[in-house]
Amino acid sequence: MWIHGWLATHRIFDAAVDETRRRTDRATHLAVDLPGAGSTLRDAPKTLEGLVDAVLAEVAASGNAPTVLVGHSLGGLVAAHLARRLTEPPRALVLLAPVPPTGLSLPTEVRARFTRICEEREGLRAFLAPQVGREDVLDLLLAVADDVPVTTALRQLAIFASTHAPVTAPPETRRLAVVAGARDPYLSKAFLRASFERFAEDVTFETWDDVGHYVPAEAPGRVADFVSAVLAGQGGTA
User: Fold this and answer.
1) Could you tell me if 35 and 121 are in contact, meaning their C-beta atoms sit under 8 angstroms apart?
2) What is the pLDDT of residues 34-74, one digit of tens each?
3) 24: closest CA among 236, 233, 228?
């Protein structure tokens, strides 16, 4: 199961999911839209619990317990909390530039800038361009952001910028991999290591060069290699 982040929809995973399917033809993949974004007709919830409830409903509707949860950014926060509530906990978590399980404390000026981006999308290109080195990736990020209404974006921002109760990975989850982008201006490997050290005892941390915050859009082939290796029960390093 693939869970997207803030100002995004499941489409940010399209290339990575397609590549993973080619490598794991027997696996079933479900990339969900969080409520209020993309194709969903439901209002965006105001709490993390509401987001997790919505994804649980997607799991129930699919009829399949996810073996691996892949979460990007806000989706990493959702995946960490979802893992504890699934009847059958996932075998592995793959978290790409994830918001930590306890949330993300943003400086006042950063949160103000994020709020302006939610309300005034004209500034989104200027915000993203320094972080993304390729025009095709920038175009994708702008396209998926168009499918996220202002209200949804603001509510998601409030959720990931809030403080949440600590959780730990289920004992059944044998593998947890956290990927940081070397060019991510907000979530460094050192910060993520400190944030996840209480979530699980055995965590694999990687930093990918030439990648920023938008890992699934910037490096879909590498994400596919990584997730395929996890699905196969191998080491995650690709």
Assistant:
1) no
2) 999 987 767 899 999 999 999 999 999 998 889 999 999 99
3) 228
By residue range, what is the domain housing residue 20? 2-231
184 DSSP assignment: -
Burial (CB count within 10 angstroms: exposed 0-12, middle 13-18, buried 19+), residue 7: buried
Model confidence, pTM: 0.94
For residue 238, being part of any structural domain is answered with no
What are the backbone angles phi and psi of residue 94, rounded to the nearest 5°? -120, 110
Residue among 3, 36, 14 nearest 153 (CA): 36
Rounded CA gap, 116 and 43, in Å?
21
User: Can you list the positions of beta strands (E) in the chain?
Assistant: 2-3, 31-32, 68-72, 92-96, 175-181, 203-208
Does any domain span residue 237?
Answer: no
Residue 236 lies in a domain: no
pLDDT higher than 50, residue 33: yes
> If you count DSSP H runs as helices and E runs as strands, how many of each does the chain have, helices first?
10, 6
How far is 95 from 97, CA to CA, in rounded Å? 6
8 Å CB contact between 20 and 2: no
Whether residue 200 contacts residue 173, with contact meaning beta carbons closer than 8 Å, is answered with yes
- Which CATH number characterizes residue 197's domain? 3.40.50.1820
Q: Are 211 and 187 in contact (CB under 8 A)?
A: no
Whether the CB-CB separation of 54 and 216 falls below 8 Å is answered with no
| 86, part of any domain | yes
Rounded Cα distance, 31 and 191, in Å = 27
**Domains: count for the chain:** 1
